[in-house]
Amino acid sequence: MDKERILHISGLSKSFGDQQVIDRVGFSLYRGENLVLLGRSGTGKSVIVKCIVGLMEPDAGEINVFGTDVVSCSEKELNRIRTRIGFLFQEGALYDSMNIGENLLFPARRNSRLRKLGEKELQELVLRNLESVGLSDAVDKMPGELSGGMKKRAGLARTLMLSPEMIIYDEPTTGLDPFTSEAINELILKVRREYKTSSIIITHDIRCAEATGDRLLLLHGGRIVAEGDIRALRDHPDPEVRNYFK
Q1: CA–centroid distance for 138 within its chain
Q2: Do residues 216 and 230 make contact, with C-beta atoms less than 8 angstroms apart?
Q3: Beta carbons within 8 Å of 63's beta carbon, 6+ residues apart
Q4: Spatial separation of the C-alpha atoms in residues 8 and 239, rounded to whole Å
Q5: CA–CA distances in Å: residue 164 to residues 198, 199, 241
Q6: Pairwise CA distance, residues 139 & 179, whole Å
Q7: On the CB side of 17, how many CA atoms lie within 13 Å of its CA?
Q8: What is the CA radius of gyration of the chain?
Q9: Cβ contacts of residue 89 below 8 Å, gap of 6+?
Q10: Which of 62, 97, 122, 238 is the most buried (most CB within 10 A)?
Q11: CB neighbours (10 Å) of residue 173?
């Protein structure tokens, strides 16, 4: 049986003035897959993601998410799709004026499904998600008391509050030491196992790509120049692709 395709992009193009950032990009994401968008800074990785969630309109191309064309759908439909997608931003994007527990509760209380839960159930959900990311003792701490790696974990716990089907990780290991980066990579795999998520992982970190990705897409010059697992890309016939992994 073929895997279920939850995202499909074809002919995606985007320019800013005379600069072509994305040039006829196409790929799919399948349920349960960790897909890595790999490339150096400025190769258009973040632009693709912004187009996927409707924060940026492409110049051309089709984007289908969960069976809906996000380029032409209504704002209401787009918001419904966004509730099924979680984000882990580079800095965790925590509110500095709230403790970690309050950070997790903030989006939950704005969610129509979770608003129906009682306070006790919400608090239990907070503790369960913090425990999943190894931060069960940080519920009362302020973001300023956490290390960079802990902030990423807290940001991921907040994302998990809404039980997303797809998670987009934006440079999850940037700015972290090798030991903490490895822990974050392991956490990405743990979340996929326990929460049955599909993921797009945006990174320029080869170790992160190798550790977390089932399939890698290498972006260069606004195009996908190679696709496959880490071994296929390291043995790619194009020397420029191989050089990326040296």
Answers
A1: 23
A2: yes
A3: 7, 8, 9, 12, 51, 52, 69, 70, 71
A4: 29
A5: 9, 10, 33
A6: 23
A7: 1
A8: 18
A9: 155, 170
A10: 122
A11: 28
Of 181, 171, 242, residue with least CA distance to 211:
181
What does DSSP say about strands 198-203 and 166-170: parallel, antiparallel, or unpaired?
Answer: parallel
Sign of torsion over alpha carbons 129, 131, 135, 139: positive
pLDDT tens across the length of the chain (246 residues): 368 999 999 999 999 999 999 999 999 999 999 999 998 877 788 899 999 988 899 999 999 999 999 999 999 999 889 989 998 876 667 889 999 999 999 888 877 777 777 788 888 999 999 999 999 899 999 999 999 889 999 999 999 988 999 999 989 998 889 999 999 999 999 999 999 999 999 998 999 999 999 999 999 989 999 999 999 999 999 888 888 887
Q: What single string gives the DSSP state of each residue in 7-54?
A: EEEEEEEEEETTEEEEEEEEEEEETT-EEEEE--TTSSHHHHHHHHTT
Q: What is the pTM of this model?
A: 0.90
Question: If you count them, how many residues does the chain have?
Answer: 246
Q: How far apart are CA 28 and CA 98, in angstroms?
A: 38
Six token digits for residue 87: 């984000």
